[in-house]
Design a protein that fits this description.
Elements: E1 6-12, H1 18-27, E2 41-50, E3 53-62, H2 69-76, E4 81-87, H3 91-107, E5 112-118, H4 120-124, H5 134-144, E6 147-150, H6 159-171, H7 175-188
Parallel strand pairs: 1-3, 1-4, 4-5, 5-6
Antiparallel strand pairs: 2-3
Length: about 200
């Protein structure tokens, strides 16, 4: 696992912004022009601090193209957490995200799932309307015991918060303590961060 303490995998259709999400978190950069589609998977790592200790998150950005679908199983094997991304403005990507989650649960039932609605800036700026009702996504997330967050790699909205929550969850000793963490995060960003578990 390339020396990482925890393996995190990014899943979702192509062009939903997985690579942008990882680059914003790792490099704190956003590339306006389109990325070249990921082939297979890309890896990056970052040291994070939580609970007074340091850990390395190993992050796998997987290709969203159907032709690499079978290969993705290799990358989410033994993952501690999975960020399943969908584009808030494209309904089909949400439907596909649900398929990814079903597939993931069939193979890695202990992997924690974080559902991520990307491109929040596009919705907030009125460029495109949200294609999936916020309440529907939140209800779905609660039903599967996942955390839901809306992010923008362009502005950085909730990107660092998402990965920090994952790091915190990876080392939380009990579900009660995790619930307290969720309450704290929820009170900080109730308008753009929706946490359900």
């Amino acid at each position: 696992m390339s020396g990482a303490d925890f393996k995190v995998v990014l899943l979702g259709s192509e062009d939903v912004g997985k690579t942008s999400l990882m680059k914003r978190y790792i490099q704190d950069k956003f590339q306006c022009r389109p990325h070249q589609n990921t082939i297979g998977a890309a890896f990056a790592s970052k040291t994070v601090s939580t609970r007074g200790r340091q850990f390395v998150l190993g992050i796998w950005d997987t290709a969203g193209s159907e032709r690499y679908y079978a290969m993705s199983q290799l990358y989410y094997r033994d993952a501690k957490a999975a960020i399943v991304c969908f584009d808030l403005t494209e309904r089909v990507t949400f439907d596909r995200a649900k398929q990814w989650i079903t597939e993931l649960r069939n193979h890695e039932e202990n992997c924690k799932i974080y559902l991520c609605g990307t491109k929040k800036d596009v919705v907030d700026d009125g460029i495109k309307a949200s294609a999936v009702a916020h309440e529907r996504v939140l209800q779905y997330s609660k039903g599967i015991g996942a955390v839901y967050m809306e992010t923008s790699s362009k502005t950085g909205l909730n990107v660092a918060e998402l990965f920090q929550l994952i790091a915190d969850d990876c080392v939380l000793p009990s579900s009660n303590e995790r619930n307290e963490s969720i309450k704290l995060h929820s009170s900080k960003k109730s308008s753009s961060c929706c946490l359900a578990s």
